[in-house]
Q: What sequence folds into this?
């Protein structure tokens, strides 16, 4: 009873602390920017869901063993404390080194800019390359999960097909790097251009790239990537139409639409019986999907597995004197051994602080969260140096979505950040344009 009261006090007061912090630092979490959206994502995906888990309202997670209330309180506190240190690192770096990192983009100039004789050769070349790469990928994968679904395959068969297309497919990382990043970048870029110049050619590129991107994200029957893609398109719309802010009313309406779309996808892809069950599955996945792995990380380390001391971090060509520990896969094997026995290679990623904890305990969470905040500030300041406003805006949205994954994935994914480098390469490729203001 005392622990329950303590939990409620912590759960209720942390949002108040977020609000006080935003007022004191003059930060608006409705402003579209990398650090703001990351903090909001951590709050939604790694904080709110602790409540139903603590009071065992999510039967599915209870059946999987998420029942230790003390561990759930730790998840709650670590999500909040890591957010505070992220903000502290970002603000200190902004004040001391990168004073242009939080400046607003010149949306007015972007709207009024006249793109004289703008060439569609580069966007068309990228679009053609994406289509060819997608067709080649579909040709070499052993099976296509979406096709298996349409054939009426069982859930296990679909999961196996998805595994063969992703985690178990050699070279999938390279296909995902180019196919997903480039197609989403082109979709956002062409959508922003259309909002500005209203040209038919730009609209055509956007429609085709949108269809290709949607298909490439859905062929594995994964639901979250498509939802985040739609959110990035909505983000681009808000950036131009609402001066880099999320309008509360339209954002709520859009969120409800996304939830319904995801609920329907659960009915189609996961054999969920009705819309209500689908909506509940969406909320369970969104609010608890990242928390459950964090719970297991705290449960397993160090009681059953010693702290890794950096062994889950990248070790390219074994240049460091340790054997790489595949954290997300190894935890999945322990928590859900049945899938592994059936040949399904699953993963159990969680919010970024989870990996920091299993490597360096609580002190690692604090130290690296601060460093990560400063690093994001550095990246944000580099974005401001991109000359073309539309390319700069597209890159900012892409990086906002890229870093928001820290709320659901490992810290080490950002140590050798090939995705980040690739996004900058695409931005530089598209930024060679003349912009003349009226």
A:
């Amino acid at each position: 009873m005392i622990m329950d009261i303590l939990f409620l006090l912590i759960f209720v007061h942390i949002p108040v602390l977020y609000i006080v912090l935003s007022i004191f630092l003059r930060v608006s979490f409705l402003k579209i920017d990398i650090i703001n959206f990351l903090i909001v994502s951590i709050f939604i995906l790694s904080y709110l869901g602790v409540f139903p888990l603590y009071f065992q309202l999510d039967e599915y997670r209870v059946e999987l063993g998420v029942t230790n209330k003390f561990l759930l309180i730790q998840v709650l506190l670590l999500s909040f404390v890591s957010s505070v240190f992220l903000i502290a690192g970002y603000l200190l770096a902004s004040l001391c080194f990168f004073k242009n990192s939080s400046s607003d983009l010149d949306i007015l100039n972007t709207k009024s800019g006249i793109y004289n004789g703008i060439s569609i050769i580069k966007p068309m070349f990228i679009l053609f390359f994406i289509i060819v790469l997608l067709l080649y990928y579909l040709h070499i994968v052993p099976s296509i999960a979406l096709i298996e679904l349409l054939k009426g395959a069982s859930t296990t068969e679909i999961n196996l097909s998805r595994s063969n297309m992703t985690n178990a497919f050699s070279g999938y990382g390279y296909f995902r790097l180019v196919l997903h990043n480039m197609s989403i970048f082109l979709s956002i870029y062409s959508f922003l251009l259309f909002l500005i110049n209203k040209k038919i050619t730009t609209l055509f590129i956007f429609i085709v790239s949108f269809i290709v991107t949607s298909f490439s994200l859905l062929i594995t029957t994964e639901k979250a990537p498509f939802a985040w893609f739609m959110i990035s398109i909505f983000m681009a719309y808000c950036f131009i139409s609402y001066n880099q802010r999320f309008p509360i009313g339209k954002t709520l309406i859009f969120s409800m639409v996304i939830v319904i779309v995801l609920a329907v996808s659960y009915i189609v892809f996961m054999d969920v019986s009705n819309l209500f069950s689908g909506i509940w599955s969406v909320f369970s996945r969104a609010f608890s999907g990242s928390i459950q792995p964090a719970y297991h990380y705290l449960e397993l380390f160090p009681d059953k597995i010693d702290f890794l001391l950096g062994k889950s971090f990248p070790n390219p060509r074994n240049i460091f004197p340790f054997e790489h520990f595949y954290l997300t896969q190894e935890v999945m094997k322990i928590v859900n051994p049945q899938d592994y026995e059936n040949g399904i290679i699953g993963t159990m990623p969680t919010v970024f602080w989870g990996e920091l904890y299993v490597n360096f305990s609580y002190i690692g969470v604090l130290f690296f969260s601060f460093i990560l905040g400063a690093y994001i500030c550095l990246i944000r300041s580099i974005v401001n140096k991109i000359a073309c406003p539309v390319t700069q805006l597209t890159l900012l949205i892409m990086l906002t979505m890229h870093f928001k994954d820290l709320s659901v994935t490992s810290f080490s994914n950002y140590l050798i950040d090939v995705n980040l480098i690739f996004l900058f390469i695409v931005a530089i490729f598209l930024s060679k344009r003349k912009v003349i203001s009226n």
Summary: The two ends are 67 Å apart (CA to CA). The chain has one domain: 1-438. DSSP finds 20 helices and no strands in the chain. Residues 1-438 form one domain.
